[in-house]
Specification:
With about 325 residues, this protein is an alpha/beta fold. The protein contains eleven helices and eleven strands. The strands form three sheets. Strands 3-4-5-8-9-10-11 form a seven-stranded parallel sheet. Strands 1-2 form a two-stranded antiparallel ribbon. A two-stranded antiparallel sheet has the order 6-7. The radius of gyration is 19 Å and the shape is globular.
């Protein structure tokens, strides 16, 4: 079974690997709720207890899916995280960010209703609207905690400076930001700040949106509505050059008898043990039980100091070519 990680400012533990549910409802091709529910149940059977969703994923559909799963398996067996702040229409990527107190409260009530629960274990501000004061946003979230509607406060994709301002109002249990061998921006300021403040870092897209698995070799293989087709990193020329970065990961995986994606997850898990002040809890997502099993098995892979040095040097910060998102997706990132 997976080890547990204690979130210093949450008062509870989560599995060392969580599960990102986003792709089950949108962005990565057609949804299949029946298959997704089987995969979620399999994740719990394998020791995953930490499940991540958001109100914007499928415009509520993903929360409803996770709510069905929660009802089936029992609320006391899992820790649920969801988010507010990104407002958009179904099927449309352009969006606005809303962190107003009234919206936060209405979003929280809507998420509780869709999830079919009365308490959200970890509630994130999904993106920061700079027309608001982060201190006021966190104060509103702290009030929801006082009322028993949420258990712990989280932020997503904020800068180190914003995290510090937020933590001065209320301890921040977790910061969710993109982090992988493919995207290491957080190492400059954000990860050290998390460790200083005791804030867990929850990396999303820990497999580089599929690139680090080695299974994705052509953009043409993606579904027509897959959002990666709009990502600068998957644009003509960029994708092919970025794919070459995988070679050292593939070589190490071959030497250890595992998959490249497992090396990538093992590397992230090693960041959690590198500094005990705050854990790093990746949340890989998949619709398929086979990939889920691979991801969970990564927790058993041990990387030596020499392995970690090889990976650090082969995929240094800034190695990937192109922005992480199209311009609409970069709104509210690292602010």
């Amino acid at each position: 079974m997976l080890q547990q990680r204690s979130l210093p400012h949450a008062g509870f533990t989560v599995s060392a690997l969580g599960f990102g549910c986003m792709g089950m409802s949108e962005f990565y091709g057609a949804a299949d709720d029946a298959q997704s529910l089987k995969t979620l149940r399999a994740a719990l059977d394998l020791g995953v207890t930490f499940f991540d969703t958001a109100d914007t994923y499928g415009i509520g559909d993903n929360e409803e899916l996770v709510g069905r799963f929660t009802k089936d398996v029992g609320r006391n067996k899992i820790r649920l995280a969801t988010k507010f702040g990104i407002v958009r229409q179904k099927g449309v990527y352009d969006r606005r960010i809303d962190n107003s107190p009234a919206y936060i409260r209405s979003a929280c009530e809507a998420s509780l209703r869709r999830l079919g629960i009365d308490h959200i274990d970890l509630y994130y501000m999904h993106r920061f609207d700079t027309t608001q004061r982060i201190e006021d946003v966190v104060a509103t979230m702290a009030a929801l905690k006082q009322e028993g509607k949420i258990g712990a406060i989280g932020l997503s994709e904020v800068s180190a400076a914003t995290l510090r301002k937020a933590a001065a109002v209320h301890p921040i249990a977790a910061l969710q930001s993109e982090y992988s061998l493919y995207t290491r921006d957080v190492e400059a300021e954000i990860l050290p700040t998390c460790r200083e403040l005791g804030t867990a870092l929850v990396p999303y897209a820990p497999l580089g949106r599929g690139v680090l698995t080695g299974a994705l070799t052509k953009v043409e293989d993606l579904a027509a509505d897959d959002f990666r087709r709009q990502s600068p990193r998957f644009a003509d020329g960029n994708f092919e050059r970025n794919l070459k970065l995988l070679a050292p990961v593939e070589q190490l995986a071959k030497a250890k008898g595992c998959k490249p994606g497992q090396i990538a997850l093992a590397w992230l898990l090693a960041q959690s043990t590198a500094d005990s002040r705050a854990p790093v809890v990746p949340i890989p997502g998949t619709k398929r039980i086979g990939y889920l099993q691979e991801n969970v098995a990564a927790a058993d892979i041990k990387l030596s100091a020499a392995d970690l040095k090889l990976l650090d040097e082969a995929l240094p910060r800034g190695a990937a070519i192109g922005e992480r998102y199209a311009p609409a997706g970069m709104k509210g990132v690292n602010v």
